[in-house]
Amino acid sequence: VQLVQSGAELRNPGASVKVSCKASGYTFTSYYIDWVRQAPGQGLEWMGRIDPEDGSTNYADSVKGRFTISRDNAKNTVSLQMTSLKPDDTAIYYCNAVVNPWRNYWGQGTQVTVSS
Fold first, then answer.
1. What distances in angstroms separate CA 20 from CA 43, 68, 71, 95, one per listed residue?
2. Is 99 helix (H, G, I), strand (E, B) or coil?
């Protein structure tokens, strides 16, 4: 199993960015995909989840309305679209495939920096 994320991004406050996560090595619709982030000096913060089978999503209250998770089953890819970016959104963003509550496969992380 491998999750490969897109590269680092730098944006101004108020801008948007899309981070992608391409999965391989398993049946794409088998596992939920979560997005989590880690801001500098902070712990992991869960952003949201998508079920690749039907596209249903759940989001953390802190990002609901600003972040959107989508999937492209033809490309085995999940994306995290982030809008109205704030400096506090600066973090490393990780996708992970949730096999069960005790086992996940992780992407390599994508640095998103929001700064003027």
1. 22, 12, 9, 9
2. strand
